[in-house]
């Protein structure tokens, strides 16, 4: 309940009301405006301050039996307002003390600055967490020293590569999930596995909060926080970019110097990149103009297709129940298999995608993605399904794949809907077992062969030669029945 201005007192006549009890009179000094009394003899008040109005309602309504639960509700609102109002020089935030915060840490400028900022503003210990999802060994070197120099009490590093590929990438591959026709969801799949690990670490170290360095314009903030909500809704979530005064790189450098935080000396890329075992994404600089062609020196995982070998390379992908298990007859673990295909596909310029996508937060953005191994695997999975799935199943699977991709892109990995859809995908691909042979040549992937013990393809039926199972003469009756609606419509139009 709230009131403002004269609306709070319209229709009330003080002259006809009885005396006001002494406790209520003592509260009048807290209120600015004209006092009014209702039919119960209790005081109401015209005011412009919502909190004061709410506080006063605590005295107004206890006598009304039908509204007995309202007092607790209003008190909760007041408590919430007290926790959030005020100012600490940060746009109106007032911060309560936290015990320990687990920070998603990369070692770059932003996360290095977040460490002392958290300590200064929340009075907490900071545990830095870095997930190894295949971003490369160079990204992990010297992180512990950087974290502790920034003020962290410890750094935790977890190797999540196998979990990432097995439990996140492969289910999306099995589902055929592609966002807006092109994007193979590299960053989208990585965020929930990292956020899940942060929740686990928070439990292990006794942290009462988690934090990330995502900005307020991107998708990743949603992906991190929805995972936190799903796995531990009791955790506090601190997002510095939505609170602090820092607005750019120069501000961050100045803050770092002020707090004796060593500024990373690595040369800042003109591109914003995200790398993991599945892909490498590029945004920013020249890419912000959709009309501009990317510079050749931007790419890091793939060679220029025209510079790729002049001889094609054939690769055979073995799959069991919709999931890849081998390359050229050799079995690999999930992460090792993807690494192998990244190397093979990269040297042939496979898997480059340039697209303008619709971000979850509403804006369009242009991104360039390199997904060499993933492109090979998606092609193999689709081709094997052409043997093992019937027409109706493929159509339903393709329609659900669109929704599946949207859920993953939007950070709803742990949503019951995605989990239910995943159970469906696992069930219908149970017979998607076999192998696919692909030809890689100067940026293209071409299927040259496919086979499966569960193949629905029958040469004796599909052959143009007459056979025992399919009698070509039966087609006449089928066509007449199948085309009956068209014939009826034509007859009606001709009769008119």
TrEMBL record:
One Pfam short name: Arginosuc_synth
Domain Arginosuccinate synthase C-terminal stretches: 271-488
A cellular-component GO term for this protein: cytoplasm
Pathway(s) served: Amino-acid biosynthesis; L-arginine biosynthesis; L-arginine from L-ornithine and carbamoyl phosphate: step 2/3
One annotated GO biological process: argininosuccinate metabolic process
Record keywords, A-Z: Amino-acid biosynthesis, Arginine biosynthesis, ATP-binding, Ligase, Nucleotide-binding
Domain Arginosuccinate synthase-like N-terminal, chain residue ranges per copy: 100-262
Domain of life: Eukaryota
Entry annotated with the keyword Ubl conjugation: no
HAMAP family noted in UniProt: Arg_succ_synth_type1 (MF_00005)
Subunit structure: Homotetramer.
PANTHER family, A to Z: ARGININOSUCCINATE SYNTHASE (PTHR11587)
Protein known as: argininosuccinate synthase
Organism taxonomic ancestry: Eukaryota, Viridiplantae, Streptophyta, Embryophyta, Tracheophyta
